[in-house]
Amino acid sequence: MAEDGRVFLQIAYAFFGLTLVCALSGVSFGNTEALGFLVDSEVAVGLQAFCLSRLPESDRQATLPIVCGVMVVNCLVSFGEWATHLRLMPYKFSLTTGETIFRATGFLNHPLINGLYTCATIPFIMLLRIPLFGRYLMVGLFAAATFAIETRFASLVAIPTSLVAYFLSTRSSSSGSDNQSSRFLQIIMGLVFAPLAVVLGLAGGFGERIASGLIDGSSQSRLSVYSLLDYLSLRELLTGVGSVRAGLIIAVRQGLIIESPVVQLIFLFGIPLMLLFFTTVFWSFYRLARGANLFVWLGIATFFVVAASNSGLASKNPELVFLMMFVAGARGRTRAAMTASLPAQSEMTNVVGRARVLAHQARMSRNHSM
Questions:
Q1: The whole model's pTM is what?
Q2: Is the per-residue pLDDT at 354 higher than 60?
């Protein structure tokens, strides 16, 4: 089995082991309600990693353009929903059931998940094998879509992510792989999109966030939610209560919303298994990103920064499945590009070696003639 296949197989075994430990804990301590969380968040990721380990490298690389294509359509649907205030898919928190602000959901079940996926796609777009101008247009499309979805934190993260992706693209082209016309295009696009990004950021509330301080009401509520842990006993902190409903009841009484995957996982499984869960997740994506392009690292960082602002990672949503599809395709393309460059490097090494041999022979002949 190839090296990449072994990496995915190790990740699959890690998530299967995590699932087994959480299941045994839930059965032992009577927290059977928490077992439903394992299907989407742990079992699905393990099965996905196992399937990816059996695929050839070319098929893994094909996942990147496929998922990016689906997300492009999702962005267009989100723009349509934003313009018409009509959703394509049913949404349980509709305007008739208490939603105060219309936010597009696209193909997904919640606007926060839609904003997370849209924002996290931006760095991976730069690894597509399409003209540079097309990649820049797609980055602009996805950054604007985060504002249409009305997810403030995702839109605030999308602006610096887009700028970092742009600067990384200029850095990669400075090695001489792109011609002067591409370099000129990058300068023009920077002059056009940098002011536009600033305007979108100010319109989306970035200026208000800076003016009012980094800790506003929304941020304070995400910090205050940790006070819910004061209502748990030592045993419940260690083993969990098996359900988030108890936390929701307390949160409603305190006027809070549980927008923290850490707090939700503590309510489900307790602190030790919460730490084991995040250790497994971060170790898995570190193994996948090791040796990959900087765009892959940027995409993973963007995903977890935005995901930390809501409870998606602790909900029955296949968010980790989505990220692994991107990383698997991007990792394969990075390795393929590195492998493709090896023949040219070895050929150049041979040329240099032959030149050194010829120079040595010339010096030896001159010494003999003298």
A1: 0.78
A2: no
